[in-house]
Write a structure and sequence with these properties.
The structure is a homodimer. Chain A is an alpha/beta fold. Chain A has helices at 47-52, 62-67, 71-76, 80-84, 96-101, 128-138, 156-176, 194-206, 223-233, 251-259, 269-275, 307-311, 314-322, 326-352, 356-366; strands at residues 4-10, 17-23, 26-30, 32-35, 57-60, 89-92, 106-109, 112-116, 123-126, 142-144, 183-188, 212-214, 243-245, 264-267, 278-281, 284-287. In chain A, the strands form four sheets. Chain A has an eight-stranded parallel sheet. A three-stranded antiparallel sheet of chain A has the order 1-2-3. Chain A has a three-stranded antiparallel sheet with strand order 7-8-9. In chain A, helix 6 (128-138) crosses helix 7 and helix 7 (156-176) packs parallel to helix 8. The radius of gyration of chain A is 20 Å and the shape is globular. Chain A binds chain B through residues 39-41, 43-48, 68-69, 73, 76-78, 83-85, 294-295, 297, 307, 311-313, 315-316, 318-320, 322-323, 325-327, 329-331, and chain B through 39-41, 43-48, 68-69, 73, 76-78, 83-85, 294-295, 297, 307, 311-313, 315-316, 318-320, 322-323, 325-327, 329-331.
């Protein structure tokens, strides 16, 4: 099945909506946060741990899997779900963002991108058609069109060229994409230029994708500017299709995105922070290696019901981080992903009960950094 | 409660026995293998994963915990069990082996050992009394006497001095050791000299410990010599007390130890091997990063019922190891510890059914490296 999206309830005071995204691998309640599993694994997590955390959908990176172990190998394995034993839904990105973030290794033209592997320096060329071939081989529930993501700041001419190219590539992606159980999302580009965003969104919507992402944000621009761009872009995206804000995972930004009508988010932040000892609590981020936690025998967050908080103290967690034990990353990631999962559940409940703005205000008044 | 040991059944054709070791943290069926949790964590495992693997008892290292986070901090936390949330039994070593393996950092005399921390170079002095203070603070179910472990090869005079010192230290340990829920084991030293082993064993047994370890083996001597020393030492240890062969964890050596009357084993081998991609199968060790497993979509061991073998292929495991993902270590460790747990269960069942030698022969004929 291709995906289906249903808006269950619209927020009265905001653009937010409670929704359901039907996929071949389960029904995803939205708004949803998608943890990142770059190399066919969410770092430090077993699939059963992710299931315990009620993770509904993860994101995996085509660019990385294309290079290692190779998309054909994963196709041979029966697809990415089977390869990594993940029973929930998967979204694969297109590699566009990696083209952007590994900029020094690449050359872009209208045909596609030539780049050198960050692993072994080998040369590769990815076109929109190739990006589709890779993602169809991976077999995720949602694939992303191949896009060009511009940095911030960038001149308007550069951004305009990239946005036009992104649109042309989206058309080419749509032409070659097919897959019984995979849906292709378009990606809106246009940097921080409102007119470019609106133009790009309008043209993409004409192509009638089953979902739309907003790319090229959260790349260094001020948060307020990101929210402005969301404010001007979202209204041009259809109400009956899911909207996905790429690369955004800070709790505050998720709340701002949700109230602006975004349904899906992904980011390495919660998992990367966890590995670095930066852990979310209801009162903000906490750096667990701080000396003051040495003999703190309370849980990380005494309001949290995750495995980590129910069974371990800050003192023990600090010891694990100071000793560079792998269990530090595992327990930290369990906690941060639980926090995200719980945040999204709370957002959905607030939407259901028509009190999203109240929830947002209360959350942000406690979550101080 | 201090520990109690009960021999359930003696093997008819060997010196092996099926036993039960009653501790404050559960009844341990013997022969048993104890995974190592050096820094208050079995590397890459959550406590609940260890429970799923039916791990009954783990070993933790006093030397490491003394240095970081400090035994007093762990006492403040309520002891090691509570600190690391491990509900099963724990045995702590005395630090003697670390004195031996970090030889260049230390100075030994009859009073104790001066050494520099491998973490920050700070100076420390550990006496038998200090080793007891540390282990009582940690609060494991079983503590070990402070011993001097000699290398292999070593001259007889050096070994004799160390064995005598180990005996004197054992007396001092016994004098100061107290603990409602902790039992102190003596350690037999004497290198590869049979007369020294026998003399040391006889003298230690007079001190009437609730259990006896055989230390200073598996330090580089030929396996056949280790078995000879076991053959001459075990008969001098009481039948009604548990016998523990320190630092031995290779499946073949465990079988040889069991048939010679050993009840308990510990070693970093299964967990360290797992992190290095050396995984146990019923036909021997397998190096998972070998290129031939690149597109091998079969389980690691199709006879194995562990989480790893039930859900993942060799190709996926190889990908995780090649990509240096933490999940590689987790899945590898789950498998290797399951293998050890299953091996020990099989040994106990064979003992119960009077077919230990047959089991040993069959296992060794399949397990080729």
């Amino acid at each position: 099945m291709t995906i289906k999206f249903e808006v269950i309830k619209d927020s009265k005071k905001t653009k937010a909506r409670l929704g359901k995204l039907f996929t071949h691998h389960g029904v995803i309640e939205t708004p949803v946060f998608m943890p990142v599993g770059t190399q066919a694994t969410v770092k430090a997590m077993t699939p059963r741990e992710l299931e315990d955390l009620d993770i509904q959908i993860i994101l995996s990176n085509s660019y990385h899997l294309f290079l290692r172990p190779g998309h054909n190998l994963i196709a041979q394995a029966g697809g990415l779900h089977k390869f990594m034993d993940w029973k929930g839904a998967i979204l694969t990105d297109s590699g566009g963002f990696q083209v952007f973030s590994l900029e020094k290794l690449n050359k872009i033209n209208d045909e596609g991108v030539s780049f050198n592997s960050h692993i072994d320096g080998s040369k590769h060329f990815v076109s929109p058609e190739k990006a589709m071939e890779v993602q169809m081989a991976l077999g995720a529930d949602i694939a992303m069109a191949f896009d060009e993501c511009t940095p911030y700041p960038a001149g308007k001419y550069q951004v305009e060229i990239a946005a036009q190219r992104t649109f042309q590539w989206a058309k080419r992606c749509k032409e070659v994409h097919h897959g019984l159980n995979q849906s292709l999302f378009g990606i809106v580009q246009g940097g921080t230029f409102k007119d470019l965003r609106i133009e790009n969104a309008k043209k993409l919507v004409e192509l009638d994708f089953p979902g739309y992402a907003i790319g090229g944000l959260s790349v260094g621009e001020p948060k307020s500017l990101m929210y402005e761009i969301l404010d001007c872009t979202v209204p041009w995206l259809p109400n009956n299709k899911p909207r996905y804000l790429m690369g955004v995972g800070a709790p505050q930004s998720i709340l701002e995105g949700v109230t602006r009508g975004v349904d899906m988010f992904d980011c390495v932040l919660p998992t990367r922070n966890a590995r670095n000892g930066s852990l979310f609590t209801s009162s903000g981020k906490l750096s667990i290696t701080n000396a003051k936690y040495k003999d703190d025998f309370t849980p990380l967050d005494n309001k949290c019901k995750c495995y980590t908080c129910q069974n371990f103290t800050r003192a023990y967690l600090r010891h694990l981080y100071m000793s560079k034990e792998m269990l530090a990353s595992t327990l930290g990631t369990i906690h941060n992903l639980y926090f995200m999962s719980f945040l999204m559940k709370s957002i959905r409940l607030a939407l259901l009960e028509d009190r999203l703005l109240e929830f947002k205000e209360e959350f942000l008044s406690n979550f101080l950094n």
